[in-house]
């Protein structure tokens, strides 16, 4: 007997109520992420600060924190919220390029 996995879109995930739960969307499947610990938070905070200064000093675009979601692929959708992202070319649109930093 085979079991079918239900897939959802990034828009459906965005409408879901998740509370404090961290998730990613991988090929349409919701994957629960483990909570980050204190050491991770300290390293991530330091790294974000360094990247923020570099991105701003060189006019490279906008820097987004870990809570920001990005759609990386469609049909089935894959999205990510872990790490931080640098977006070149403004704040949106198909032409903008996003680089994921873990």
Q: For the report, how would you describe the main beta sheet?
A: 3 strands, antiparallel
Instruction: Label the overall shape.
Output: globular
Secondary structure category: alpha+beta
> Ranges with pLDDT <50 over ≥5 residues?
89-102
**H-E order:** HEEHEEEEE
> How many structural domains in the coordinates?
1
What percentage of the residues does DSSP assign to strands (E)? 25-35%
How far apart lie the N and C ends? Answer: 38 Å
Briefly characterize the structure:
This protein has 102 residues and is α+β, with helices and mostly antiparallel strands. It is 25% helix and 29% strand. It has one domain (10-101).
Q: Can you offer a commentary on this structure?
A:
The structure is a single chain. The protein is globular and about 45 Å long. 9% of the residues are buried. Strand 4 (70-73) and strand 5 form a beta hairpin. It contains 2 helices and 7 strands, in the order H-E-E-H-E-E-E-E-E. With 102 residues, the chain is of the alpha+beta class. Residues 89-102 have low confidence and may be disordered. The protein has one domain. The strands form 3 sheets. A 3-stranded antiparallel sheet has the order 3-6-7, with helices on one face. A two-stranded antiparallel ribbon has the order 1-2. A two-stranded antiparallel ribbon has the order 4-5. The longest helix has 20 residues, at 38-57. Helices cover 25% and strands 29% of the residues.
